[in-house]
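Usage

Read records sequentially. Each one opens with the input sequence:
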Amino acid sequence: MKLIYLRAVNRLGQLVDELRSNRSGGLGVDGVTESIQAEEVLETIRAIDYGEPEALKKAAVAVLSQIRNVRLTESHVNYLAEAHAVLSDTISPNSEMANRIFRSAKQFGLDPYRGILSSAGALKKYKLVEVSDDV
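and closes with the structure output:
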């Protein structure tokens, strides 16, 4: 499993390099193939049973939630590069690695909760106030 993981992370790095080299003021159509391939590599990483249970799945889902169904921007590519760096620097995948990837989305101006059903904090709070009938 470790070899499959290392190959997948290496391929993700190659795709990030290709995405960066295709940029000419914007990714446009040039990055579509690499984007799709990056999603496939992340799905492979998600399915690997290596390291702390569920760590790779959490990390892959955090990245996939940012790059799926969007037109990639420089921020997305930089986030993908950061995720690759974290994955390749981690000897044994663990929950801290997954949390670093999740939290780093904000660093690139992305919404860490994009594509996720719930967030850790409340978005709005409401207060119910009883009103009398004699108004």
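Summary fields computed downstream for this record:
- The first helix runs from residue 2 to 22.
- DSSP finds five helices and no strands in the chain.
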